[in-house]
Design a protein that fits this description.
The complex is a heterodimer of chains A (about 450) and B (about 300).
Chain A (H helix, E strand, L loop, with lengths): L1 H15 L2 H14 L1 H11 L6 E7 L5 H15 L13 E5 L7 H13 L5 E5 L15 E4 L8 H20 L4 H4 L15 E2 L6 E2 L6 H23 L2 H10 L2 H6 L4 H33 L8 H28 L3 H20 L1 H6 L4 H6 L6 H10 L7 H28 L9 H9 L2
Parallel strand pairs in A: 1-2, 1-3
Antiparallel strand pairs in A: 3-4, 5-6
Chain B lengths: L1 E12 L2 E12 L3 E5 L6 H8 L7 E6 L2 E2 L8 E4 L11 H11 L5 H11 L15 H13 L5 E5 L7 H16 L3 E5 L3 H7 L2 E6 L2 E6 L1 H8 L3 E6 L12 E6 L4 E5 L5 H11 L2 E7 L3 H9 L9
Parallel strand pairs in B: 3-8, 3-9, 6-7, 7-8
Antiparallel strand pairs in B: 1-2, 1-4, 4-5, 9-10, 11-13, 11-14, 12-13
Helix pairs in contact in B: 2-3, 2-4
Chain lengths: ~450, ~300
């Protein structure tokens, strides 16, 4: 154990006392959180360039309406009410008579104007848009643009024309306007958490509004942390062991330490790096969450589970990586093994969204009991606001511990044989031979 | 008293028998030389003593203890291939290896040995900045830092200039004086002849020689002439009774055939050139090595 400790110290210092580690510590979260930062920045820096849109009104009833509505919007509706600063773009509408003889040619001409960035979109308003009915062929509003699915301005046309058409239909009923005032007002539903009672103090805890931070960002952060912890420490063991084998450092050390001590010293060194990084990020994250008023979302229990799972995940993946590294002779061998070896780390990333959406569903539950995926998937499930039965993370941990013991045993058997063998390819057959025949 | 005993050791790699039924005893306090051609099984034998490899059959006793999976801290091992963490500082490398071997008073020992091998000024330099010879000396210091009782050196002199080889040789002899047992493998027969109390030769996995230099030479008898002439090897052309000539340039080592007449050879040579040395002697270790490892070769025969 003492020799593992000495090797651990060397590995840990070699990794942590480098500029690369400090830079990685700063850059990785920036990259991971980059999309959030960009979203936040773009929220504050809205596109306020004028949007030129052509309208073709087959109904003959909306030109005036849209002209007035756009004028009103451009004069009053696009400014921050407190600062007076423009925060949304002006809609500059151009009305074009529909070509009933050759509509495709007209659409093509307008499409080309959009492609040449002269326009942002063109809108076709159907003939029966004011009186939608069973014949849907004539009561459409079509919004044409290069990115129509993502253009929020299409809703503005829908709202303006829809509200006007509704107004016209009410008027046709000859009802008292006072009676119909507010007829279509509605209240949006608010998503709330659950109420609770503090077990220690007995204090009643009111439900809190659920939000995207609680529902998505917290689980996402835990997944990314788990991913980073293994990528920073366990994954590099593959190339690091290969280099030590090729540079004959392994043989020098094996005169003094056993292959198992060698492998575990390296794995624990990586684990130390992971825990240091995790501690830095978690401490920073908790501080930021506290300042933002979200401290209650990151419970101590959750953090304990996270660290326990990280420890076993890094040992599990690290021993596998070290064993595979011991079978490699050059970078080509290492590259061919790197991707399959990293699947337990990468695969959970593909299912984050469905698991966050339904953390108690069968997909989430099943995957969280498959040991290579358990640490990541179980953490996602526990980090969502939905409570999962305590036996599930406990059972998941038990399975992870068993699988980690198996991985270390298997890795050590491969490692002890392969670390001194030169010139043999790390084929599946060879791995089996090293593991079971020596 | 024997400090290392190998009994009937066999090690195979697939279908290749690397070491075949090898038995060996190394007396405590001796310098024991391992010689043999490349690929003959020297390094495999050393690795088995070091427990890096485990024998398929046979037993190895070190200092009376049976071989187990535990590493022994009283053995210093310098492998044939040098391997040091190149990004570490020189003193940190030594501290690391010293700690792994359970050493005490390490800073003091490190300073002493770095000074001894003229490396003191490099103590805070990274290993990657050192020359090959310096790295070799550094690796040697890491091997002997904890004053081990057994020192196993695989090709310790390879790549060293004569000055550094002398430093290393003196350090090895000092270790022996202190009571350490030294095993070293080498291709330098001259060094083996001069330094080793006992010499062991392995060929194709089997022991072919084992004993003192004198006992080994006695087995081969006085069938060698060391000759120095003005004409060189050409003076030996057409002379009967010569089985093989080892030409060292200024001097030739002649292996005589069993029926050779040394007086006749001397007379014939003197007819051709002036002779400054004609010594009937036992074969050198180098010649014995060649006789075993390459019996079909007739080096230097002109």
């Amino acid at each position: 154990m003492n020799k593992i400790w000495i090797l651990f110290k060397r590995e840990y210092k070699a990794a942590v006392k480098t500029k690369g580690f400090i830079i990685t510590l700063i850059i990785v979260p920036i990259m991971m959180g980059g999309s959030f930062v960009v979203m936040m920045l773009t929220d504050d820096n809205q596109d306020i360039d004028d949007k030129h849109i052509v309208v073709m009104d087959y109904s003959g009833e909306v030109n005036e309406l849209l002209t007035e509505a756009s004028q009103e919007r451009n004069e009053t509706g696009i400014f921050n009410q407190e600062t007076g600063e423009q925060v949304e773009p002006k809609y500059i509408l151009e009305f074009v008579e529909p070509d009933l003889e050759n509509p495709f040619e007209q659409q093509l001409e307008l499409s080309d104007r959009i492609r040449s960035k002269e326009l942002i979109a063109f809108v076709e308003v159907g003939k029966n848009v004011m009186a939608p009915g069973p014949d849907t062929e004539e009561d459409f509003i079509k919004y044409y643009s290069e990115h129509s699915f993502m253009d929020n301005m299409r809703y503005w046309f829908s709202d303006v024309i829809g509200n006007y058409s509704r107004q016209k239909r009410i008027e046709a009923l000859n009802l008292d306007p006072e009676l119909t005032k507010g007829l279509f007002d509605w209240v949006n539903i608010e998503g709330m958490g659950l109420v609770d009672v503090d077990k220690k103090t007995g204090e009643q805890q009111a439900a809190e509004k659920s939000n995207e931070f609680q529902s998505f960002i917290v689980p996402y952060i835990f997944v990314m942390l788990m991913f980073m912890m293994t990528m920073m420490s366990a994954a590099p063991l593959l190339t690091s062991v290969m280099e030590e084998k090729n540079e004959k450092i392994a043989e020098v050390l094996l005169g003094t330490i056993t292959p198992f001590e060698f492998m575990m010293g390296k794995v624990f060194g990586g684990l130390g790096v992971s825990l240091t990084t995790a501690a830095v990020y978690i401490a920073g994250g908790v501080m930021i969450a506290s300042n933002a008023g979200y401290a209650s979302l990151i419970s101590t229990n959750l953090l304990i589970w996270f660290f326990v799972y990280v420890i076993f995940f890094v040992i599990m993946v690290g021993s596998g990586m070290a064993a595979l590294g011991s079978t490699c002779n050059d970078n080509k061998d290492a590259q061919s093994l790197q991707f399959p070896a990293m699947l337990p780390i990468i695969l959970p990333l593909f299912v984050i969204v469905p698991i966050i959406q339904n953390p108690t569903g069968s997909l989430a539950t099943t995957l969280s009991f498959i040991p290579p995926f358990t640490p990541t998937i179980m953490m996602v499930r526990m980090a969502t606001p939905v409570s999962i039965p305590i036996w599930q993370p406990v059972l998941g941990l038990a399975l992870v511990i068993l699988f980690t013991v198996f991985t270390v045993w298997l890795g050590a058997r491969i490692f002890r044989t392969a670390i001194l063998i030169q010139g043999q390819k790390p084929s599946f057959n060879n791995l089996i031979k090293y593991a079971f025949k020596g | 008293m024997n400090i290392i005993e190998l009994r009937n050791i066999t090690k195979t790699f697939g279908s290749v028998v690397a070491v075949n039924d090898l038995s060996l005893v190394v007396p405590k306090g001796s310098i024991y030389g391992f010689i043999g051609p490349n690929g003959s099984g020297k390094t495999t034998t050393i690795r088995m003593i070091m427990k890096i490899f485990f024998a398929d059959s046979g037993t190895i006793h070190i200092d009376g203890n049976n071989h187990t999976d535990q590493r022994l801290s009283n053995i210093g091992y310098l492998p044939e291939e040098r391997g040091l963490y190149k990004k570490m500082k020189v003193k940190d490398v030594l501290m690391f290896h010293g700690e792994l071997n359970g050493g005490t008073n390490l800073p003091e020992k490190i300073n002493k040995w770095l000074a001894h091998f003229d490396l003191a000024e490099y103590a805070n330099k990274k290993v990657e900045t050192l020359s090959k010879g310096m790295k070799q000396k550094l690796q040697f210091i890491a091997t002997i830092l904890n004053d081990p009782e057994i020192i196993i050196l695989d090709e310790p002199f390879g790549g060293l200039d004569p000055v550094n080889a002398e430093l290393l040789k003196d350090a090895i002899l000092d270790m022996q004086k202190r009571g350490a047992t030294i095993i070293f493998s080498t291709h330098d027969m001259n060094m083996a002849e001069k330094m080793c109390d006992q010499i062991f030769m392995i060929y194709k996995g089997k022991k072919v020689l084992d004993g003192t230099l004198q006992s080994i030479q006695n087995k081969f008898g006085s069938d060698t002439i060391m000759l120095q002439t003005e004409l060189g090897p050409e003076a030996l052309e057409g002379i009967d009774g010569i089985e093989r000539i080892n030409n060292y340039g200024k001097q030739q080592e002649i292996k005589l055939s069993p029926d050779a007449d040394t007086q006749k050879i001397l007379t014939q040579v003197m007819k051709k050139t002036s002779v400054s040395k004609f010594e009937i002697t036992k074969p050198s270790l180098n010649d014995i090595f060649i006789r075993i490892a390459a019996p079909e070769r007739k080096e230097g025969r002109s």
